[in-house]
Each structure stands twice: as C-alpha cells, then as structure tokens.
Amino acid sequence: MPADALSSALLPAGLHDVLPSEAAHEAAAVERLLAEFAAQGYRRVDPPLVEFEENLLSGPGAAMSKQTFRLMDPHSQRMMAVRADITPQIARIATTRLKNEARPLRLCYAGQVLRVKGSQLRPERQFTQVGVELIGALEAEADAEVVLLAVQALTAIGVPHLSVDLCVPTMVSRICAGLGLGEEEIRELRAALDRKDAAAVAAVGGPAAALLESLMTASGPADRAMQALAALPLPEGAEKDRRRLTETLALLRAAMPGLTVTVDLVEHRGFEYQTGLSFTLFSRAAGELGQGGRYRAGAQGEARGDGKGDGRGEPATGFTLYMDTLLRAVPAAKAPGRVYVPHGTSWESARKLRAEGWVTVAGLAPVADAAAEAGRLHCGHWLADGDVRTVG
Amino acid sequence: MPADALSSALLPAGLHDVLPSEAAHEAAAVERLLAEFAAQGYRRVDPPLVEFEENLLSGPGAAMSKQTFRLMDPHSQRMMAVRADITPQIARIATTRLKNEARPLRLCYAGQVLRVKGSQLRPERQFTQVGVELIGALEAEADAEVVLLAVQALTAIGVPHLSVDLCVPTMVSRICAGLGLGEEEIRELRAALDRKDAAAVAAVGGPAAALLESLMTASGPADRAMQALAALPLPEGAEKDRRRLTETLALLRAAMPGLTVTVDLVEHRGFEYQTGLSFTLFSRAAGELGQGGRYRAGAQGEARGDGKGDGRGEPATGFTLYMDTLLRAVPAAKAPGRVYVPHGTSWESARKLRAEGWVTVAGLAPVADAAAEAGRLHCGHWLADGDVRTVG
C-alpha cells in the first residue's frame, strides 16, 4: 500500500495528519492573525476542548447540537460535549468570568473544533477556528471595526483578491413582518430567496413580492446596491437596517477606500443566529474564508448558571476564520536555509549559525561525503572549515 | 455567586478557561519553543485530536488506555479515542506516512491532550504538550542532542535554575537479569527502589542487593555519581548502559559546561516505556517541566496497519514539555503599551501607531474625558492632537 493510502486508512474520515510544511504554514498564519488582533486590543482567551453539554449547547450553541460529540464525565457523572464551535464559549466567558470587565470587551481565540460530520464544502471533521469577539458595543463603529480587522489581518498574511460581502439578515424578516406575512410564509420566502428563485419569490411573496425581488436584483457591488436600496420604500424596522448598512459602509470606505465590497440584501443561510449587520469574507482563489456579524452574547441566560437570563444578552459582533480554506489562499513563507553541520562541529559554531538565521541540522556520526549527506537530509547547504557552502 | 466560583461551577473539574494575560503568555512560550525546535531542523506535524482507538492505544499508547476518553464514530461505526498523549501519534506518523523520509527524522509538535482523570501533581485534565522526536538514530549524539535542545529551548523562554536529571531505566533490569533474578523479584525491587527504601532493597535484592544499594546511594550530582558508578562491577548489559551515560554526559559537558546535571541510577517510575537513556527537566521554582528519553517507535507493528511489525520498531528519542507546570517557571513578557484612540481618529493614524509597536484600542463613540476612558479600558496612554499621552 502506498504511504498516503496507508495513512488515510489509519485515520477516521475527515481527520488527517498535518505534515511538516503545511503544519508550519498554518502555525505561522495563525500566529500572525492573532498578532494583528492583539495589536487592536483583542486579548486572547483559551476555553477548554470539552464542557458540560448543557452549557456548550445552550443558546446559539444549540445550532451545533447534531454536529457535536458527547462524552460521559466519570468524575461528575454528567454528559460533556466536545466543542464544534468556539464562538459560544467566548460568549460564555464574556458573560460569566469576564462579566465585570469594562465594555466594550475585545477577545480573540484560536483553537481546534471537532464535528460529527463533514459537509460537502468542508469534508474535514476537525479544523482550526481563529476569530475575535467585540462584546458590549451597539455602534456602527463596532460593526466596521470587526470587518476592517478581518480585512487587515487577512491582508497581513497575504490573502490576495480579498472581498467582503455585507448583509443584514434581519432585513427580510422585518419587511415581511411589516407587511403582515405569517411565519410559515416567511420561511418559504427565505428558502426561495436563498435559492435566488425569483419565480418562487413572486408566487409566495404576496404584498412583499415586489420589494423582495427588488432587493434580490439590487444585490451586488456595494455602491450600486446601496443606490438601488435607497430608492426602495421600506417598513420601519428594515429602514433601521438600511441606515446601519449605509453607515457601516461609509466607515469602511473612509478607512479602506480600495476594499472590494459587495452587498447581499436577501442572504440568510449561515446567518440564522445573527441579529444585525453580518458579513462573509471571500478570496477569489479559495472562496469563503470566514464570516461574522452581530449576535446577542449570553442571550439565553442558561450560560449564566442562575436561570435568570433576560433572554436578550449583550450586543456583540465578531468573526470566525476557517484555517483550512484560508490556507489555500495564502502563499507559504519562504523557509529559512537549512545547513548540515557535520559530526564534531561545536555547539557554539552551530549556535552562531542559528543566530544568523540558519536552520542547523546536526550530523550525529561521521560521514565520508558531507555535501551528499546534506542533500540527503534536505539541506541546501553544509558547513565546511567554518564556511557555509551550497550543495550542488 | 462571585464570578470565579460561578465559572468553576460551569466547567467540569480539571478543565478551565485560560484568561487573557495567561493565554497570551502560554501562546508566546509555545511559539518560542517551536521556533527553537525549528532552528535545529525539527519540522512540525499536527496529528488530529481523535483517532481510531485501536491505533491510538496500541504499543506505547496502551499505557494511557485508562486515561483516554472514547467516542463512537457514526461514519465508520468504529470506536475512536481522544488523545491523552501526542507522542504515540508522532511515532505513528514517522513509521507510516513519513516512513520513506530520510533518517534521522526530526519532528516537533504542540497540541492539547485530554485525560479522564487528573493526578495529584497535575489536577488538570486538559493541557498542552510541546515536544520533539528524533527518529532513526542510535548514537549517543542523538541522546545528547535532545537534552541540549530541551535545555536551549527552556532557557530561551526564560526558565531560571534549570537542571537535568539523567537516568537509564534499563540498567537495573539488566543488573537483575544478569544476576539471575526472576520477574517477580525484579518488580518488587523496582517498587522498593522507586520508594528509595534501602531496607526493602536489601531484603528482596538477593545477589543484586549490594550493587543496587550502591547505585541508589551513588545517585546525585553527575560527576560524583559517575565516579561512584565507574568503580562498580556491572554485568555486561548494564556496562553498556554505563558507557552510554558516560558518553552522553561528556557531550553535554562539551556543549554546555555550566549545565546542572544530576544522575539517578535507579529511577524507573514514569519511564516504563523507555528503552535507554532518559531524562527529566527540572526548575527549582516549578518542579518537573518535562521528560524524555529513548524508546522504539512503531515497536508493536500494529500502527503499520499490515500486521507485519517486527516488534522492534525504530530507535527513537525525544521529550515532552508540560506547559501548565512550565509556565509557572517562566516570567511573562512585558505587554506592549495600550493607547486609546478616540472616536473619529483616522484608520491611518491608528495604523501608524501599531506600526510603532503600540496596541491601539479604538473609541467607538465620542466621550467627554478621553484620559478617563483610556484608564477605564486598561490603556496607559491616549492619543490627543496626534500625540501619545500618558494617563495619570
């Protein structure tokens, strides 16, 4: 059996070993993303891999229930769950241990999540999530801050051709509610809009049909979409969403005039738990890199452990990046040169080479041909008489 | 309920949230350790959090069976296990996917492990392991390389008062076998030696009693211990262990003359799966920081998946550091200065401050007193009229 087939037979589907060059690439990218978050005041927290099921899967976490592995804790005799998403854990930390910290509270994280099933788009069942949460701020400035931070961080690690797709998943619901549609009709409309199925929207849209069709066709490059949106007659709630979108876009334009921004006025899929301005990050090369948006942190109250949640929680926004797709868009950094240091080289000589930026690979026994040995060990260089020489 | 009690009630025993300053401290230390490993040619691999139980718990992994959580994989209908130790995974990768890579193979890793129970010394059930494996080298130079690398890396992250305790856990077995003791007697002797119980050693040691007592009392500072050891009459196998210890110590002395080295000639506990020179890393402040030593990678053959393992595997050595204890020994780096940038500050002005090394914390709305707001948000500085001013 070839090594690759052998290895994949050894591991469960959707789980894999990250091998040398790829592992270094991912680690360097994660490190740089976290450095960018830290530079804007986001402080790192590390929640555990497992928690009590009832905490991890309450509130927004409930969405991941079917994707979550369970474990029995022999200590407490209670069920635990392996996290399938880190976001609810950060909200829990913010609203419990850090509930007395000054707001807005800026937190960031990086860690592994595990899922019961892979999806068609993401067959992996384990991947790295990296992200931020900005908790306790209602302002459009907060919405703009997290979008700009995501763009800044992705640009810093070398993602080319980046674009941001803004949406306000509450707008359609508010339009429908404002025009008196029932829950079942709204659900059908949502499905039709997610399919971008104009005929179905016309068929089930009733009084909202014309407006929703206009929203659907207006979606696209931000300036054109906002112009079209400005001309539409919106019910009051949706009008608030329009103002927030306009305001946030203006803040993005002021900070990063060259940023490619599109607006999707009917998007809902993937944003079921978002309560306001939301966004998806794209790269032309790799597709969707991550997403984010507004939600209510600790909205269910259960996570507070006192059963006295107000059902509203704190205003919050943030984003999550998926390292598996993201890395496909990022060129690996050039690895530093490897120099073979033959057997008998002093520790001090090797240390000096490392201080100059070389990776040293020590010979553990004498060899006849140091250049050949260097080549065998993937070193482009070897040390001879105190000089670094180049193989070949 | 105070926030801390509330939080600990929320999480299972032995699991905890790593909060801001501690999480950054750990991340920076892990990053630096891996950079030191990489500088000596160790390439990073990242095995998954879970694997099929039969692979993860075969060979040396079997030792962790009772400490390992199991999960049913609905995809394959087979049992999976959450790793309680990363070392067996690295050995698996080396002997399967990387079996055709040139030897010696140098690999490093950092990751989370999960255990069913905490111990008295380490109540945590989840912690970070960081380490290296050097696979395919028999030489004393390999033993010395991993000890020196551990010392170098720990020194680089600022561990003070570091010492290395060398041992050869095979020596006692070889002495006992050479003097004709049976398996049961050897087990009893091991237990007595682990307790450093001289009376019991004399009682059950039979023909080995005098020699083992000498080994026990000779243990201590390396030079004195080696002098005492040199004078003892050893059976052939144990004589080989003595030569390896002498040779390795000489290599350590040549590279790092100032290193504090002790030798324990009877240590066994914690080294049940070691097959040669082993070591423990200590700091006066924090106790045991990690351990390492020789083993056979892929020794059981099962991990090769073809049932044709030769029962011997490849010679290997390495070490694992436990970040939880280690961080207690390491001073946190000074955090960069935080500067509050009031509402309305341009993105470009904030970017320039970050390029100068500041952490910027953006005001999301106008405030009357920027200095007070800076203080409230844990910023020692604020930006006014383009200048960074100091709070208080």
Automatic annotation (TrEMBL), chains A, B:
SUPFAM superfamilies: Class II aaRS and biotin synthetases. Homodimer. Heteromultimer composed of HisG and HisZ subunits. GO terms for biological process: histidyl-tRNA aminoacylation; L-histidine biosynthetic process. The keyword Transmembrane helix does not apply. Pathway: Amino-acid biosynthesis; L-histidine biosynthesis; L-histidine from 5-phospho-alpha-D-ribose 1-diphosphate: step 1/9. Residues 293-315 are annotated as: Disordered. Its main location: cytoplasm. Belongs to the class-II aminoacyl-tRNA synthetase family. HisZ subfamily. This function is generally fulfilled by the C-terminal part of HisG, which is missing in some bacteria such as this one. GO terms for cellular component: cytoplasm. HAMAP family: HisZ. It comes from Azospirillum thiophilum. Keywords: Amino-acid biosynthesis, Cytoplasm, Glycosyltransferase, Histidine biosynthesis, Transferase. It comes from the Bacteria. L-histidine binds at residues 85-87, 115, 129, 133, 269. Signal peptide: none annotated. Required for the first step of histidine biosynthesis. May allow the feedback regulation of ATP phosphoribosyltransferase activity by histidine. Residues 28-342 form the Aminoacyl-transfer RNA synthetases class-II family profile domain. One of its GO terms (molecular function) is glycosyltransferase activity. The keyword Amino-acid biosynthesis applies. It is found in: Cytoplasm. This is ATP phosphoribosyltransferase regulatory subunit.
